[in-house]
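Chain A, query sequence.
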Amino acid sequence: MTVEEYLAFDAQSPERYEYEYGELVAMAGGTLAHAERCARFIRVFGAMLPEHCRIFTSDLKVAVDPKGVYYYPDVTVVCGTPELYQGKKDLLTNPTLIVEVLSPSTEVRDRMLKFRRYGQLPSLQHYLLALPESAEGDGQGLVQHFVRQEGGWTARFLDLDSSLELQGVSIPLRQLYPDVART
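Chain A, predicted structure.
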């Protein structure tokens, strides 16, 4: 399938598909925990990030490589003016931050393939991999935060006592995971 065929198909399809160099990748169905965590990130980011940052749901595609890679991140943030690919209203080219909420069926793809591809976007400064909930209930390693530095990407795991530093704002992880109890 060509890019043009994909874009036409995706605009008409009731289901969403990502696109990787000619191949369609069906989007996995979400769970209650996954949907709730995405909503929590959107709510907290909307309340805490500066006004020049705009937060988008998974309804917005990102043109990772206009010649062949289009993804639907769980949460996308643009700090500045959103840039759209060829004037299409649903195809962003300049994300500042992307959040992928992990699930067993997508974790390897989100950690490896998508991170490598997203990392090629010059605008991207932060990539977050978030657990929908704490598997052990201990609040450890809930979010892996990748930050673009001058020499490449650095990563660290955040727990309930950590804060996420974005756009000059410190967001306590407790606000993103208020439902996770410390043991």
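The chain has a mean pLDDT of 91. Residues 31-176 form a domain with the tt1808, chain A fold (CATH 3.90.1570.10).
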